[in-house]
Write a structure and sequence with these properties.
- The structure is a single chain.
- This protein is of the alpha/beta class.
- It folds into two domains: 157 residues, 3-Layer(aba) Sandwich (Rossmann fold), CATH 3.40.50; 221 residues, Dihydrodipicolinate Reductase, domain 2.
- It has 14 helices and 16 strands.
- A ten-stranded mixed sheet has the order 14-13-12-11-7-10-9-8-15-16. The chain has a six-stranded parallel sheet with strand order 3-2-1-4-5-6, with helices on both faces.
- Helix 4 links the parallel strand 1 and strand 2.
- Helix 4 crosses helix 13, helix 8 packs antiparallel against helix 14 and helix 9 packs across helix 12.
- Bound molecules: nicotinamide-adenine-dinucleotide.
- The site of nicotinamide-adenine-dinucleotide has 26 residues, from helix 4 and helix 10.
Length: 427
């Protein structure tokens, strides 16, 4: 979509004939255009670790973006109240559906565990609110499909919280690749490495079996669609270790990385995916791997390798390999070199991996229609790749993408072939 000039709702109405060709808003999103001088009213669902980061981002953007926090919801009421106080919002509540009843709210930021993302996003869209939803967009592939469908029906904005998309290195790399700087692209590699202490990934040394349930925490609301079990402090505080609420390393961390390659290489759904790893170092009743890697093969004829370990911090270069050259992502942007090391092209980035410009992009989208950095299509492509990797790990099978039925199945049940697909649909 091309970017129209900033225009207020009133000006937009007056000049509709001249500008509609450049604007792909639907009737409902058109009705939601916010004027350049109108204040954007926002609210938050989930005020834990990342929710607090979002509150800080909106405080920072209050003046420059003319944005105001109206409400904070958290099923642990103390968190909602502290969050509301922190951001100067007049409303704090336990039940997020009450927050969605507040008419004046333009968009909500969702920072809850993964198993709640789709329900909350759909409820917010149904209530006429735009959404900034933390990554991964959803916990499962069918949920991502439902969110995408709802977004299309309502035409309301959904910004997925992969904030590295606020770094223009990836869209700029996409342009260079399209212009042929690398020749035929065949492979990309990227990583997410950490070294955890003796507790292991996402364990909190302050949490034990006897950590009590806060008296104002609605535990059943937190569980949501997951099996109803008695209070479990490890599940509440260390939810990334359990598949009922999370996809672990893959959905929590790899999504940040693979989305960069998807944007740079304009990838959609992989053809085959394999995920490997194990619960190797911290067998502490988690049911998700503590070390994990994945490889995705895309129908255009390229693979993407994501190295991951939580036991060792030594990284590998983030790069894209073509027949003519290699594109290296650097802390300042990217450089493409040929086989002899001669520079073919380079880019100095603007923006960065930061939720502040990622929110600002959504604000400009709401006011001017500026394209979103991480729309539902990209959010969904990420969810498909990481869920296929986790399913491959869980079942010891290579997973394939069934393009007819739009679902993952064991790859050997499909007739996939090994040649590039030439159709425009090949991601
Ligand atoms: N983009 C990033 O860099 C980044 C970094 C950290 C976390 N995250 C994402 O942010 C999200 C939250 O992670 P976190 O670390 O803040 O988790 P957290 O456990 O610290 O916070 C989640 C909050 O959501 C609340 N909550 C859960 N269910 C709710 C419900 N039904 N109604 C209202 N509130 C509910 C919890 O009470 C909790 O306060 C996750 O999707 C995570 O992947 C993103």
């Amino acid at each position: 979509m091309s970017t129209p000039l900033p225009v207020s709702r009133r000006d937009f109405l007056a000049t509709t004939g001249a500008t509609t060709a450049a604007v792909a808003w639907t009737a409902q999103s058109y009705a939601k255009i916010i004027g350049a001088n109108d204040r954007i009213r926002t609210a938050f669902i989930g005020a834990g670790g990342m929710g607090s980061g979002h509150l800080g981002a909106i405080k920072q953007l209050k003046e420059p973006d003319n944005v105001e926090a109206v409400a904070v919801a958290d099923c642990w009421l103390t968190r909602a109240q502290k969050g509301a106080e922190n951001v100067g919002a007049p409303h704090a509540m336990q039940d997020y559906r009450k927050l969605l009843d507040i008419k004046e709210i333009d968009y909500v930021t969702i920072a809850t565990p993964e198993h709640w993302h789709s329900r909350m996003t759909i409820d917010a869209l149904d209530a006429g609110k735009a959404v900034y939803c933390e990554k991964p967009m959803t916990h499962s592939i069918p949920e991502a499909q439902e969110v995408m469908k709802k977004q299309k029906e309502t035409g309301l904005a959904v910004q997925v919280g992969v904030q590295a998309m606020a770094d223009d290195s990836y869209s700029s790399a996409a342009k260079a690749i399209e212009e042929g700087v690398l020749g035929q692209v065949v492979q990309a590699q990227i990583e997410y490495v950490r070294r955890y202490d003796k507790q292991g990934p996402w364990r909190d040394p302050d949490i034990s079996d006897s950590t009590p349930q806060p008296s104002d925490l609605d535990w059943n609301a937190w569980l949501g669609k997951a099996a109803k079990i008695p209070w479990n402090p490890h599940h509440y505080h260390e939810w990334r270790c359990y598949s009922a609420y999370s996809g672990g390393i893959c959905t929590d961390l790899f999504i940040h990385r693979i989305t960069r390659i998807m944007k740079a290489c304009k990838l959609t759904y992989p053809r085959r995916v394999v995920g490997m790893g194990g619960i190797w170092q911290w067998p502490d009743c988690r049911d998700l791997p503590d070390n994990f890697e994945m490889i995705c093969e895309y129908p255009r004829g390229m693979t993407v390798y994501v190295l991951g370990t939580m036991s060792n911090r030594v990284p590998v270069d983030h790069l894209i390999r073509g027949y003519r050259g290699t594109l290296y992502f650097t802390p300042t942007g990217w450089v493409a070199k040929d086989k002899d090391g001669k520079t073919l092209a380079s880019h100095t980035k603007t923006g960065g991996e930061d939720i502040v410009p990622h929110h600002s992009n959504l604000h400009r989208h709401l006011r001017t229609g500026e394209p979103l950095n991480c729309p539902v299509e990209l959010g969904m492509a990420g969810v498909v790749a990481v869920n296929m990797a986790n399913e491959s790990w869980r079942t010891s099978k290579v997973m394939g993408w069934d393009t007819v039925n739009q679902r993952m199945v064991p790859a050997d049940t499909l007739d996939l072939g090994h040649s590039p697909e030439s159709s425009a649909a090949a991601g």
